[in-house]
Every structure is written in structure tokens, then in C-alpha cells.
Amino acid sequence: MASHYQEITDDLRQLIVTGSLAPGEQLPSEARLASRYGVSVPTLRLALDVLQGEGLVEKHQGRGNFVRRPLNRMSYEGGGLRTDYRAAARLALDVIVSTHEIRAQGRVAALLQVRKGSWVTEYTYLTSQERSPHSLARIYVPQSVATLPPMETSRSPWGHDIQDRLAEAGVQLASVTDRLVARLPTADEARRLRTSTKTAVLEIERTSADAAGRVVEGAVLVLPGHRAEALFTTRLPVSDLEGVR
Amino acid sequence: MASHYQEITDDLRQLIVTGSLAPGEQLPSEARLASRYGVSVPTLRLALDVLQGEGLVEKHQGRGNFVRRPLNRMSYEGGGLRTDYRAAARLALDVIVSTHEIRAQGRVAALLQVRKGSWVTEYTYLTSQERSPHSLARIYVPQSVATLPPMETSRSPWGHDIQDRLAEAGVQLASVTDRLVARLPTADEARRLRTSTKTAVLEIERTSADAAGRVVEGAVLVLPGHRAEALFTTRLPVSDLEGVR
DNA sequence: CAGTGGTCTAGACCACGAA
DNA sequence: TCGTGGTCTAGACCACTGT
Question: Which of A77, A164, A244 to mutate to test the interface with B (most CBs of B within 10 A)?
Fold first, then answer.
């Protein structure tokens, strides 16, 4: 037999997905729910933890627990410049960009394949939809490749406009590699995305290279699992079919 | 100031990543750790929960808690048939396939864009490395497209050999779409992958279409976050650069 | 201020695994 | 059988939120 908290989880989930508990609605307090189900508060909290991980419930200290409003899922479209990155205007996204000049260390140096300590421009994108944080992106451009003017806003949450500006500066991209990992967010990421550390995030590490194989742009994107997906479409030349056998 | 369990989390994490607690080593029992840190058992368990979510600790009921051995990260390479799917032999992967004939419902019908109730062949792949489950894949082929003979083993954890066998049957793939989401596993998935429901998984939904746009294969892959990543590489024709402006 | 969730205690009993 | 983790209790105090 399932444990108490699992049965409570299933019951509450059912109430939420069927709409008996409306999106945005405040749940009864944990103490009230606990007594209704005849369990202690810590036990009831186990159930809420699970629902929080599923993205069905938001917890707010001092305010209460709420049924999460279903959010428009945003799509990251991979595969280079085919993306229509002007999504921001259509979806009422606010993309705030801050620009910093940093010295490449550890992960950034490895990503860009530059020496540690060399200068890099870092653009930090924080995208929000209706004041609710949505995604976090860090774009890196080695200053040996180009020195772009600072930015403050953007029309793309994914930094695709950087690629565009590189093109204007005469840098031609030849290939884009995306590396995707699922993990739980760090405490800092959870705070900035106003999600919980129990909700999975999709991390996308992107590098763009020119024809000579030089990395001209790198990016690390963090997308909350319940708000975002990544799409990749590949068209296969018919001749490729032979190469496989 | 950080809470007790967060400080304990940080301390144990440090011991693990520096190697003071060796991979595979059994941790002291929860009661012993709790008394060592001067907290109660439930509090200590909060810390272990976090480390479990990070993939650093494995819990085994009745046996104890263990430092997880770092695992070879497996890569899913997207973007159609360019993948070298013969990875199984090199990495000593065991891929067990079971074949079922099912009627398309809900998600499967939507994935394959076929009518509900139409017949589909389902291949369930369970891949293991050194007896440790590694990834779960379900591949679907509409029987209106082809009826392939049943399979029992495979050399690809991702079902790419199905695409190969479709080609042999005269079905030519023209495009592949991958859709990636990060989420927590269902209880069933966690059990089959022998991971915890607190570790994020990468879900990849793939559809392959022929030149007419007909979906000839669909797949749902579930990869544990700490064992797998997905890679997509796109080469950009120079002419594409113009289309973007 | 009152009400909420966040953290924590010091126990208890049960289910599982290994010997 | 014994030691382990899994679940659970009935409280407690603190930090945060909105009034």
C-alpha cells in the first residue's frame, strides 16, 4: 500500500489537474490540510514537496501555497540561425541584459577554448514574462573575436541577437553545437528564476564556431523545466541515407 | 545564516567532491551522522535528500547510504542519422528490447499523428552498463508504415537502428525533430532506472518523417540527468546567414 | 499584529537487506 | 536476527508577509 503522503499527493494532484482547485487559488494552510487528511504537518509537507517538484504548486513563505498558473511553454529552437528570435515582441517578454568584461576562468575558458585570464565580454540575460522570471542566459564573446557595444535589452531570450551582431561585425558562423543536460538548479538559480530547488532545469551549453573552427560565441542557458522545452529539427539530405550503412 | 541542513549539505558535498569520502563508500548511518552533527535524524535526512538530488549519494533501504560512483556520461547525439549508433559495443552496453503491438492512444497517437486505436509497434529499450540501468526508450512505428520483425537486443540505446531498418524496408527519412524537456521522473521511471524521484531526467521526444511529411517513427527517451547529455551540432551553409536579417 | 510556511526536535514503528 | 533507511507524530520556535 502506498504511504500516506503519496496518497495525499495523488489526491491533491487530481484536484489540481481536474480544475477543482483553480489555477492561482490559494490552498488551505498546511495545518488545515494536515488535519483534514488526519496526518501531521511534516507528513503533509512531504506531499507538497512532490507537487512543487512537479510544478503544480508554488510555495510562498509567509503567504501560503498556491496552485501554479499554467504557463506558456517557451521553446528554445536550436540549430543555429534558423531561429526566429523576434519572439520577444510577440510574447510580451522582457529581456534585461547586463554587460560585463571578465577574465575567462574554468568553465568559461573551456567553453570558449581560450586561455585562462583572457578577456571576454559576458552578457547576462534575464527574461521575464509578465514580471515572472522565465530564463537565465549567459553569453560569452572573446574580445579577441569582437568587441561589441554593451546591450541593455534584447529581443531574444537566448542571445541569438549576439550572433546577428557578430555577423554585422564580419564574423561568419559556420557551426553551432548545443549540449543539453537536465539537473536541479543551484540555490542561486532557483532564487533568480523564482522557482524551487526541487524543479528540474534544462541547461543548454552552446558554442558557435566560424569556418576556421574558432569559437566565436559561447552560451550557458538555464530554463526551468516546467516553462521551457528545446526543439531541434534536422532535415536530412537523401544522400546521407547511404552513409549510415 | 544558512540553516543546519544546508550547512551539513555543504560539508558532506565538500567531503565527497574532494574525495575524502571515496566513490562507492558507505556513509555512516543516518543516526550516527545526525549525532555527529548534533541534529535530529529528520534534519540530517534533509541534507541527504539534497545530495541525492545532485546525484552524489545513493540511498538503499535496508543497506545504507553510499557515495555514488562517477559514471561515464553517455551522449545522445541528435540530428538524425549522422549518429554513430554502434556505441553499445564500445561501451559494454546491454540493450534489452521488448516488442509489443499496441493501439495508439493519447500521447502515442499525437506523437505519430495517427488515429487513436490504429495499430503501432512499440519497442521498449532498457539499456544498462555494468548491470546498472542507464536509459529507457520507447520507439513507436505505425504498422501502416512498416511491420518490422520483433527485436530482442540492439546496438543503439536510442533506437537509431530502427531508423536503419526502416531504410532497409524502403522508408526514406527526410527530417527528424527532437523535443527536449527537463523534469523529475515518475515513480515508475525512477524504479526502472534505479534512480531517485529527486534526480532530474532529460526527456527526448523524437519524430522522424519522410519526404511527404508522414511520421514514420516516434520515440520517447528518458535519460537520468547525472548520466546523460544530449548533443546537437548544426553546420550552417553560408547562404543561411543572409536569410536572418 | 496574526497567519503563514521554514526549520527542527526526540522520539516511534515499519519494511527491507544481509548474515 | 539486527542494522539500515522509510515513514510518521506532536509538538516547538523562527522568519516572512500583509494588515
Answer: A244
B74-77 vs B228-235, strand pairing mode: parallel
Residues 32-91 of chain A: which lie with beta carbon within 7 Å of strand C?
A: 32, 41-42, 45, 59-65
Residue that the C-alpha cell 522557482 belongs to: A195
Q: Indicate yes or no: CB of B229 within 8 angstroms of CB of A179.
A: yes
pTM, two decimal places: 0.87
Closest CA to B181 of A96, A203, A104: A203
Q: Where are the alpha helices (DSSP H) in B3-115?
A: 4-17, 30-37, 41-53, 87-91, 106-112
Decide: residue A146, CB within 10 A, 0-12 exposed, 13-18 middle, 19+ buried.
Answer: middle
Q: Which nucleotides of C are covered by protein (CB under 7 A)?
A: 3-12, 15-18
B175 CB near a chain A CB, below 8 Å? yes
**C-alpha separations of A5 from A13, A50, A77, A212 in Å:** 12, 9, 38, 57
Task: For B87-125, write each residue's pLDDT tens digit.
Answer: 555 667 788 888 999 999 889 999 999 999 999 999 999
